[in-house]
Amino acid sequence: MNWKPELDDLARREAFAREMGGADKVKRQHDQGRLTVRERIDRLIDAKSFHEVGAVSGIGEYDASGELKHLTPANCVFGRGKIDGRPVVVVGDDFTVRGGSADASISAKPLMAEEMAHDFRLPIIRVIEGSGGGGSVKTIETRGAANLPGGVGGTRWYWYTTSNLAQVPVVGLGLGSVAGLGAARLAASHYSVMTKNSAMFVAGPPVVARLGQSLEKKELGGADIQTRAGGVDHAVETEEEAFACARRFLSYLPSSVYDLSPTIACNDDPERAEESLLKAVPRNRRQVYKMRPIIDAVVDKGSFFEMAANFGRPIITGFARLEGRAVLLLASDPFHYGGSWTAEACQKVVRFVDLAETFHLPVVYLMDCPGFMIGLDAEKAATIRHGVRAMAAVNQTTVPWCTIIIRNAFGVAGVVHQPANRFSMRYAWPSAYWGSLPLEGGIEAAYRAEIDAADDPKLKQQEIEERLNKLRSPFRSAEKFWVEEVINPTKTRSLLCEFARLAEPLRTAGPSRLAMRP
To answer: Which residue, 50, 133, 498, 515, is most buried by CB atoms nearer than 10 A?
Structure first.
């Protein structure tokens, strides 16, 4: 006697699971330009590496004799797989079964995915399409009572959703309509991507319409809105691009806080000197320049991976490699408010400095910051409060840090270019220019009496400005050892690669003393 009847029954149940919501629902998904959850998982991870957990869970229909007629699978698919040979956990919503709603889910499945990632210290990728919350309005009737958010027995999933941020890399992919808890799961990630035909919102258009706001999905929570607001890091045209982004993001990080990110082979000369850097910064301080070409010139070729490009735009954030070693890179963008830190830029600094601290990545900061943003709008946004939070985040880091002062360093925001009260490396370009306040505007206040008494106030102001500018030379500061080194810009890559080599043995795996914030 063997177990063939049972194995045949298992195979039949697995076949039902692969049918998902049925041929008509799968066709509808494809007709709307979206892949099914199983297709997504197959294209996200290494070929034939997926080991599914709970494939045959769902709602069975039985005949009078107790034989299975049909199985509607739960609309959560999860399991283990590999990306570039490294184990990961992947969990996805099946929109073909009740639109990804929790009504058709089994809550233990997405919970177990989070538990697996946490306890086995594996990165987790959430493929999100649907609400994934406490159910729809109909749930009140089907269950006979109203769900209390966070009620008895209902908090464990929520705890893992955020606590994994301090444990393992978390990626969220929004690939359709994402609402409610689905939106929270997408935002509760270290890196989030959505397709441009997707939308994310706390509540969808029908609910928002009750507030008197009649909006389509993209008008309410489309890619332009979410990437500019910082709700989602990146938007792409296709799902394949989203999968590629997820894979690349994970390539810079360790599997958990108990590991260190891998160093890869590098064929880019660490001593490469880019002559273009000598002309990168204009002599005219009012003339802007592009920072991203400077980034590309000093990091390993093709290694810069930018994140949250549309949010907090005075600061550029992302990963890069220096002689194959992963670093977190911050850089000012003078094209946006001259690089001044806005409230949003400060929030961005907090988030990505936390990311570096959580996963033990050295930080490189290419600085050109004339201070915090000023003016009425800046005051209404409580810029200084967010700025102090950014200062605290930087000062609380323990990872190695290296700053290149490229142009401006002024005011309190200028102070936040390296951690206080510990050693970090710092270099200045000859174009560097710093002080407690910019001369523009400050001269009129400090020398008002002298300027007003002059026969030609405008000429007197110009004379004072020229006199002070000579004292502003970075070499004057270097004479007093107020800055350690002024360097030839062409040596920047060499010095940054040396920094990465020196930092490598200082990186210590283990939980950060800071909890990672979403």
So the answer is: 133
